[in-house]
Amino acid sequence: MPASDLDRLARLDTTTVSDALDFLALPGATVGLRPLWNCPRIVGRASTVQLGPKTGYAPTVHLISPVIAAIDSDDRILVIAGGIDGVSCWGDILANAAQAKGIRGTVIDGFSRDIEANEEIGYPVYGRGATMVSARGRVVQLHAGQPIQVAGVAVADGDYVIADRCGSVFVPAARIAEVLDLADRIARRQDGMVQAVRAGRSVEDVMHDKAFEAIKTGAVL
Q1: What is the DSSP letter of 128?
Q2: Which pLDDT tens digit goes with each residue over 13-27?
Q3: 187 and 116 share a domain?
Q4: Does pTM top 0.85 for this prediction?
Q5: Could you tell me which of 24, 41, 37 has the C-alpha nearest to residue 172?
Q6: pLDDT the model gives residue 62
Q7: I need a labelling partner for 180 at 20 to 30 A (CA). Which of 19, 106, 186, 212 fits?
Q8: Are residues 69 and 160 in the same domain?
Q9: How far does CA 118 lie from the centroid of its chain?
Q10: Distance between CA atoms of 36 and 109, rounded to whole angstroms?
Q11: pLDDT interval class at 220 (50, 70, 90)
Q12: Angle in degrees, CA 160, 121, 113, rounded to 5
C-alpha cells in the first residue's frame, strides 16, 4: 500500500521541507515557533484557531475549548494565532483535553504557560515562549476553521504541519504532493552529499550551486 502524505511527511524534517518550499517559491517556513519543552517532532493537519484581545466584560467560553471538543480524528494539530505578547494562550487543562481527544500537538504564534505540565503528560507544544500570565479576561477566541496568519504565513484549516527542534513549517494542502516529491529528492541528494564528504570528496565541489540546482530535475552529478 502506498504511504500516505502524512507518513511521507513524517519521514522528513523541517529543514528539508523548507528547502522544497524554497525551490517552489512557496511560503511556509516560520521563524521562532520552536518546542517549548524537549518534545518530539509532530506531523499532522492544521485545525486553525484565531484569538484576539478581549474588549468587553461579559463571560465567554474558554478559548480553544470548543475546537478541541469538536475534533473527531487523530491527525490534527492545533494551530493558534492572535496571541498577545507575554500572555498565555495555552495551558495544562487544555493540554490534557487535547491529549484525550488524540490531538497530536499544538503550535502557537504566541505564548504558553504550564510548560512542565505539558511535559509531564508528553503533550508537544511549540510557540514563541513561556509565560505565567493567564489568558482569562485578556484573550478570546474570534473564530476557528478559517484561514489565519501564523508568523507571517497563511495557514488554512487542513493544511499540513511539521514541527521539530528547528521550528514549524506549514504546507498548503493543495500543494502537498509536489512538495513531498521534491522534498524526497532533496533528502536523497543531501544524504548523498554527506556520504561524498565522508568519503573524502571536496566539500567545495559537493556543495557547489550546480549540485543544488540539479535537485530540481533529479540529475545525477
Answers
A1: S
A2: 999 999 999 999 999
A3: no
A4: yes
A5: 24
A6: 74
A7: 106
A8: yes
A9: 17
A10: 12
A11: very low
A12: 75
